[in-house]
């Protein structure tokens, strides 16, 4: 299903089996992320997250741009009070953190500033060969303020993160792959089919197990090793309360395909 409104929508949503697909849709602005788009993106993410028929979410842009960053035209004259009292970023950029289902970013072309940060907030990044990743906010005398200074070093380490944040260095898809910023690189023509295939594969697994894995991996950044291992152990024990885990193990032993009920 494609969603249409009278004015051109800033995002388009479709479902493909158990995959919810969100396309960023401001082509004339290279998908620059304004409030309208971020509000719509947040609402679509929460709707898919709350939909029992969806197991994984895919976010993509156009062939030219995943997103060229926050909308500079909108921000140029904002004051401190505008952004502080308005809760800029917190208000609608952080919705993605609430999503418990796996989110895959399929990135072609520019992933700049907030576009790169949006991709970094996803769980898996599949990059087309044309993808370019940068945090160029320093050129505006700004800073990567949608999680970039925190998620990038966790992804690629301090050396590459400082280089990118302080010099505005752009990484090619191959460099991003080598440094650990992306999960896979594919030819541009195969981006969406590969990402959809991956999302479909993931969405076919047991949803509560996927959610537990996502939460556990994310916990690795939030805790000591001892605390993280304890969290993981609790999540593992909780799998034994799930019908799907028993079905998965018995199906293996019976040499048949498991039938998951997502519970
Ligand atoms: N915001 C608004 N409009 C944009 C943006 C943007 N981020 N990026 C591109 N556009 C618009 C251009 O203004 C242009 O519009 P028009 O046709 O009306 O002139 C159209 O998109 C096409 O862009 P270009 O003509 O520039 O296309 P090129 O192919 O020549 O260049 C680039 C593509 C290299 C991506 C270039 O557009 C560019 O450098 N864009 C800005 C990238 C950038 O600086 N991004 C970071 C923005 S700041 C940010 O994301 C912060 C995130 C959260 C923290 C908030 C603090 C800032």
Summarize the structure.
43% of the residues lie in helices and 16% in strands. The protein has 263 residues and is α/β, with parallel strands linked by helices.
Short key terms for the protein model shown above:
single chain; 263 residues; alpha/beta; 6-stranded mixed beta sheet; 4-stranded mixed beta sheet; 11 helices; 10 strands; binds octanoyl-coenzyme A
Indicate the topology:
Blueprint: E1 11-16, E2 19-24, H1 35-49, E3 56-60, E4 65-67, H2 72-75, H3 80-86, E5 103-107, E6 110-112, H4 114-121, E7 124-128, E8 132-134, H5 148-156, H6 158-167, E9 171-172, H7 173-179, E10 184-186, H8 191-203, H9 207-219, H10 225-239, H11 243-253
Parallel strand pairs: 2-3, 3-5, 4-6, 5-7, 6-8, 7-10
Antiparallel strand pairs: 1-2, 8-9
Descriptive notes:
The chain has eleven helices and ten strands. The strands form two sheets. It has a six-stranded mixed sheet with strand order 1-2-3-5-7-10, with helices on both faces. Strands 4-6-8-9 form a four-stranded mixed sheet. It has helices at residues 35-49, 72-75, 80-86, 114-121, 148-156, 158-167, 173-179, 191-203, 207-219, 225-239, 243-253; strands at residues 11-16, 19-24, 56-60, 65-67, 103-107, 110-112, 124-128, 132-134, 171-172, 184-186. It starts with 10 loop residues before the first strand and ends in a 10-residue tail after the last helix. It has 263 residues and is an alpha/beta fold. Helix 4 (114-121) packs across helix 5 (148-156), helix 5 (148-156) crosses helix 6 (158-167) and helix 9 (207-219) runs antiparallel to helix 10. The longest helix is centred in the N-terminal third of the chain and has 15 residues, at 35-49. Helix 1 links the parallel strand 2 and strand 3. Bound molecules: octanoyl-coenzyme A. Octanoyl-coenzyme A is lined by residues 29-30, 32, 68-73, 110, 112-114, 117, 136-137, 140, 142, 145-146.
């Amino acid at each position: 299903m494609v969603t249409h409104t009278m004015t051109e929508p800033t995002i388009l949503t479709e479902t493909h089996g158990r995959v919810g697909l969100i396309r960023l849709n401001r082509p004339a602005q290279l998908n620059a992320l304004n409030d309208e788009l971020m509000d719509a993106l947040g609402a679509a993410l929460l709707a898919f997250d709350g939909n029992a028929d969806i197991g994984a979410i895919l976010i993509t842009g156009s062939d030219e741009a995943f997103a060229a960053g926050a909308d500079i035209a909108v921000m140029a004259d904002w004051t401190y009070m505008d952004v502080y009292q308005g809760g800029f970023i917190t208000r609608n950029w952080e919705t993605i953190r609430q999503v418990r289902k796996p989110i895959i970013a399929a990135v072609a072309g520019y992933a700049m500033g907030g576009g790169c940060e949006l991709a970094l907030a996803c769980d898996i990044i599949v990059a087309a060969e044309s993808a370019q990743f940068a945090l160029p906010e320093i050129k505006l005398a700004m800073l990567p303020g949608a999680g970039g200074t925190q998620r990038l070093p966790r992804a690629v380490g301090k050396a590459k993160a400082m280089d990118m944040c302080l010099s505005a260095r752009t990484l090619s898809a191959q460099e991003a792959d080598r440094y650990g910023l992306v999960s896979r690189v594919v030819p541009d023509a195969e981006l969406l089919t590969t990402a959809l295939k991956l999302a479909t594969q993931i969405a076919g697994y047991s949803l509560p197990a996927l959610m537990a894995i996502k939460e556990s991996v994310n916990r690795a950044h939030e805790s000591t090793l001892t605390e993280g291992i304890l969290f993981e152990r609790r999540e593992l024990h909780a799998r034994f309360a799930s019908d799907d885990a028993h079905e998965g193990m018995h199906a293996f032993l019976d040499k048949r395909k498991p039938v998951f009920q997502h519970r």
